Amino acid sequence: MLTVPGLCWLCRMPLALSRWGICSVCTRALTRPASGCPQCGLPATNPNIPCGRCLQKPPPWSALVAVADYVPPLSGLIHQFKFSRQSTLAIPLARVLLLAILQARRTRTLPGIDCIVNVPLHARRHWRRGYNQSDLLCRPLAHWLGCRYPASALKRVHATAIQHRLNARLRKKNLKNAFRLEFAVKGLHIAIVDDVVTTGSTVAELSRLLLRSGAASVQVWCLCRTL
Fold first, then answer.
1. Fewer CB atoms inside 10 A, N or C side of the chain?
2. Structure pTM?
């Protein structure tokens, strides 16, 4: 009996490998080289050198990799993944992020890493959503990259307000002392994996925590970088 192929989440055409979720044509459209600053990920004239903002006041992380801006069709997939309980999108989205990382390693000589960590949710929010979307992205990425993934390395100890409802100043204040590290990171090169980086307040707070605890370097990997 012939099996029914899966359909691409975007163009609805049959897939050769249904577990990938997004066809090769749509994948190529999503993973075009970004024109943002290689450190902060914001718009820049040269994608190979840090922008003026980073030269004056660099973020605590050393490099940022993003698949695309937060625009359709990727933004729609992320919204379904994050808010509509479509956890099956984890593998397709992790795969396009992997392709963006491999592309960055070829074009930007992105340094290798020892382990990846997720952006933790508070236990109450995790229970309400049913899963941590960052954790679901990390699991296949760690397998494909052959790196360590201590899933409980970071813990959110305070139930902070929802970040996307706050402005940049309140986001930073909202996250002060919100996280705790529960994994030895001394000397390790680490990548923080998130779905969307907006102001960067969350990944900045986590980066500072990791660096204070002895991490050798921190990168940020995300599906979308936006303002």
1. N
2. 0.90
